[in-house]
Write a structure and sequence with these properties.
NADH Oxidase, Nitroreductase, oxidoreductase activity, Nitroreductase-like, binds flavin mononucleotide, alpha+beta, single chain, four-stranded antiparallel sheet, cytoplasm
Length: about 220
């Protein structure tokens, strides 16, 4: 048991250290090539249902990263019903918490691949979209945790999921097939402050006794 624990210690250290960071800077401990390697490794080794490999990731830094967040803001604003206070709030939040970072990893699930699998296995067709979301989460988590192990902070954002115009405009900006469905955006950079939503206080944990069960017989 203790041997298993020590072999997985580095893995669990990375898991424990992964948090949501909202105070990002443009500092980058890794080169762009090293960042590319992290994203490629994560995409290669993240599991997918039936090894479908439908998950996609796009890494943007510099001007493209800034254009990405300008695009998200412009597509998001019309959903705020002309509320100037809300527009100012989101303009500031996007600028200071996401665009302020060094780069972003944008995640997608290729619907062409998912639809092909669903077509081949009609008896499972309703499950493929769910497994696709599960696969997306696994990939996002690997990249998020790896970046934080390298000294970055990051947060997971879902504008594309609930604002169709964000999805459309982001794909257009990055010249991607409309079949690439945006699942999340991970803005990252070296953090300038502690983890967690500003003003939210310490992260709390529900008792594990209520969340786990064990049967050793
Ligand atoms: C599936 C999922 C969706 C999330 N969506 C968002 C989001 O849209 N915006 C955001 O700021 N954080 C989002 N989060 C981050 C959670 O709020 C955060 O992980 C949680 O509060 C625990 O805090 P920690 O990440 O610091 O450990 C999401 C996390 C998960 C797993």
């Amino acid at each position: 048991m203790s041997e298993v624990k020590s072999k997985s210690a580095a893995f669990f250290e990375a898991i424990e250290n992964r948090r949501s960071y909202y105070n990002l800077t443009k500092e980058s401990p890794l080169s762009n090539d090293q960042l590319k390697e992290i994203v490629q490794k994560a995409v290669k080794f993240a599991p997918t249902s039936f090894n479908g490999q439908q998950s996609r990731a796009v890494l943007v830094t510099g001007k493209k990263h800034e254009e990405l967040w300008d695009t998200v803001l412009e597509a998001y604003k019309p959903t705020l019903g002309g509320n100037k206070e809300q527009e100012a709030f989101w303009t500031d939040k996007i600028a200071t918490q996401y665009k302020a970072g060094y780069g972003s990893v944008i995640f997608f699930e290729d619907q062409d691949v998912i639809n092909a699998f669903a077509g081949k296995m009609p008896f499972l067709s309703q499950h493929f979209p769910i497994w696709s979301e599960n696969s997306a989460g696994i990939l996002q988590y690997i990249v998020w945790t790896a970046l934080e192990a390298e000294g970055y902070g990051a947060s997971l954002q879902h504008f594309g999921g609930f604002v169709p115009q964000v999805q459309t405009d982001v794909n257009k900006l990055l010249d991607l097939s409309p079949q690439w469905k945006n699942t999340a955006i991970l803005p990252f950079g070296v953090p300038s402050g502690p983890p967690g939503q500003p003003g939210k206080g310490e992260k709390t944990f529900e008792p594990l006794e209520n969340r786990t069960k064990f049967f050793f017989d």
